[in-house]
Amino acid sequence: MPERFIEMGYWEIISRQMSIVTKSQQERFKDSKITVIGCGGIGGSAIEMVTRMGIGKLTVLDKDYFDFSNLNRQVFSSTDVLREDKAQVVKDKLRLINPYVEVEAKIEELNENNINELISDDTDIIIDALDNLVTRVILSRFSEENNIPLVHGAINGTLGQMTVFDKKSTKNYEELFSLPSKGKDLTDEVKKEIKKLSYGVPPVIGPVPNIIGNLQAFEAFKYITGIGTITRAPKLLNYDLLDLNSINIVEL
Length: 252
Fold this sequence. Notes:
CATH class: Alpha Beta
Radius of gyration: 18 Å
Distance between the termini: 52 Å
Number of domains: 1
C-alpha cells in the first residue's frame, strides 16, 4: 500500500480529536513510545485508549493469562481467549483497533534483574498498571534513575487514584506514600516490610480500574503533546465511586 494511504488511514482514525490538538502535537504523540506494565483491568483500558488516540509505538508487558475472574473488568478478556497470554492477546486485538500502531508484547514478570531489558531506553513514558507494591517500587526507582516519566494508577474496591512522577515532582512514589523502603536498599527484609502493607487480592468492580486506566492514558497524552495541566506528585487524583463528591485532587 502506498505510504500516502497509510498516512491517510492514521489521520482518519484520530480525526475527531484534531480540533483539540494541533497537527504538530498529534505528530509528537505519533512519534512517541509508551510502555505499559500490566495488561489487566487498569492496563487494558490504558492500552486501548493510547492506541485509539494514535500512539506510534507501544510495549505491553504481562506475565499472566486470562481467566474467568478477569471478565468483570478487563476489556481485552473474553471467553474465547481464556488461558491465553494477556500481552499476546492484547497485541493481536490492537491490530484490529489501530493497525498503524507498532506493538511489542512481552510475556514476562518485571523484576530488578530484567527491568533494563524489558523497558527500552527509547520509552518516552511508562504507565504503571501493576497490582503489587514491591514491583511498583522497582519500577518507580527505575523511572526516576532513567528520567522516564511514570504515570501511576491504583485501585481497591470502589477507590481509585492516579498521579504522575517525573523530574519536576517534589516527591517520588515511596516518599508520597511513606513506604518503609524509602531511602533504603531493596533487600529481602525491606521487601518483606513492603509486602506487609498488602492484604491479598484486592476487591474490584468493573468501572473502577477502567476509569483509572483511561485517566492514565489521557495523562500520558497530555504529557507527550503538551496540552493541559499534568497531575504531578505530590498532587493525587482520587475517588470513591460510591461517593461522587469524593472525586478530587489532594496534595500529600
